[in-house]
Amino acid sequence: IISTAVVVLCTPKILRSIHKIPAYIDWIGFILSAAAIFCITFALMQTGQWGWTNKTNLLMFALGAICIYAFYKFEKKQKHPLVDFNLFKDPGFLNGSLILLLIQTNFIARIFIIIYFQTVLGYSVLMAGVLSLPGTVPVLFAAPFGGYLRDKYGPQLPVVIGSLLIAISSLWI
Fold this sequence. Notes:
By secondary structure, the protein is mainly α. Helices cover 81% and strands 0% of the residues. The radius of gyration is 21 Å and the shape is globular. The two termini are 36 Å apart. The relative contact order is 0.06.
């Protein structure tokens, strides 16, 4: 918490010194996005205890959705928004963001798969780690090859190949 506070307080000064322009922090956008993330995450975490139809849980989901909507509407009117939604009109940016979202979701899901291996299937920590290797070790070898393909053929080929390999490794696990 202390490090986050230091970063938040120091960022405008550092940005001003680097860029020689005024640095703006969109505090309302920050608060709305944080509130949305909190409400939705809290509701998802409580579904196991409360159930999907619990009134408090539904209220948290609704508050999260309202915060997302308010964030979107507020950011569209800002001169210096926290998220510039016009970027998503660029197909390259949109497709890259969607691919990144899917890849990161896949890697985050692997954490839960390892927990599943240990708690449900009863594997040791070592065995759970060994079982997750097929999806993680190839990245070490594929990254330099992907850079070579990108330099030679552009970004589309390595992104397609990498996405397919990630899908295959997920199915394998």
